[in-house]
Amino acid sequence: MERLRQHIEHITSLTNEEFEYIQTHFTKKRVLKNQYLLHEGDDVKNEFVVLSGLYKVFFLDEQGREYIIQFAKENWWMSDYQAFFQEKKATVFIECIEAGEVLVSTLETREKLSAELHKMEHFYRVKLTNGYVALQERIKLLLSSTPQERYEAFVKLYPDLLQGLPKKLIAEYLGVSRETLSRLYSR
Amino acid sequence: MERLRQHIEHITSLTNEEFEYIQTHFTKKRVLKNQYLLHEGDDVKNEFVVLSGLYKVFFLDEQGREYIIQFAKENWWMSDYQAFFQEKKATVFIECIEAGEVLVSTLETREKLSAELHKMEHFYRVKLTNGYVALQERIKLLLSSTPQERYEAFVKLYPDLLQGLPKKLIAEYLGVSRETLSRLYSR
């Protein structure tokens, strides 16, 4: 749980007493390679804080084609946030690519900690602000950019993933063909 | 300013004293048709709460082609949020399509009111949550959907804009050609 504390204190400092209380709302869970933390159609009860490992959040269109919304690594939060906040059924999958550990939390925890501790409302607001900015960046890239620009944005966002990830996944994330990706690599 | 109060109280109730204090941080401004509230390259000092009128947030690629990120109408908030939060130069434009009024605020106000009033930190968190969900929805649509699905999502999001907006702007927002849009209309 020390990792959670560092993560929160990166944004707002906590007393020992506050952290003792906060941590009771999170549960640690081991995740195995290829395990699904979320499947389309599930009730979305949880959000996850990544302690270790690598995960992908994706959805399938009607033809079964896969689209990757994000990869998540250490200190990233992940869920089907649309469904999580609106208490609807999942429309995305979360699959583990490299085994690791996550902390599991709930919407009730998010709302309760925010109401009880101004500091935690601040923490969640700052996390959301960062998330909002990242999504806006992704929209601008999707709307306009060339494969070259998308690739550069990917390298910037996930510098340490470039070697480890199968090229197939990177191509899906960028929305380009394998051939286009190979051309980008060779530059 | 009564409109601002209703807008905030939709999320959290305020005492008269609190609202008196909050409203001193917002300035009302009239905006004329075709006026720019933000231009690429500007320092992004402000965010805007729309009281009336209609606005578009867009950017230009290197070839000068225009891409619309969002339309904003009554009660919507708008800025180049990426630049606003990170205190960078604007990469987008905000132009007034139909004259109206906005409230002008700053990042300093957002942070100050959030720090001083737990209720306002809550208000901003909830607004961000809604914004985050909307952006995620837009990403999923951009990644996968057919022009037909994008059009339906647009109709759902902006039911009252369909008649008033030039078809050219709707086509730009959807990322489809004018011809494709005409086919969608005729269905």
UniProtKB/TrEMBL annotation, chains A, B:
<feature type="domain" description="Cyclic nucleotide-binding">
    <location>
        <begin position="29"/>
        <end position="108"/>
    </location>
</feature>
<dbReference type="InterPro" id="IPR018490">
    <property type="entry name" value="cNMP-bd_dom_sf"/>
</dbReference>
<dbReference type="GO" id="GO:0016301">
    <property type="term" value="F:kinase activity"/>
</dbReference>
<keyword id="KW-0418">Kinase</keyword>
<protein>
    <submittedName>
        <fullName>cAMP-binding domain of CRP or a regulatory subunit of cAMP-dependent protein kinases</fullName>
    </submittedName>
</protein>
<dbReference type="InterPro" id="IPR000595">
    <property type="entry name" value="cNMP-bd_dom"/>
</dbReference>
<dbReference type="Pfam" id="PF00027">
    <property type="entry name" value="cNMP_binding"/>
</dbReference>
<keyword id="KW-0808">Transferase</keyword>
<dbReference type="InterPro" id="IPR014710">
    <property type="entry name" value="RmlC-like_jellyroll"/>
</dbReference>
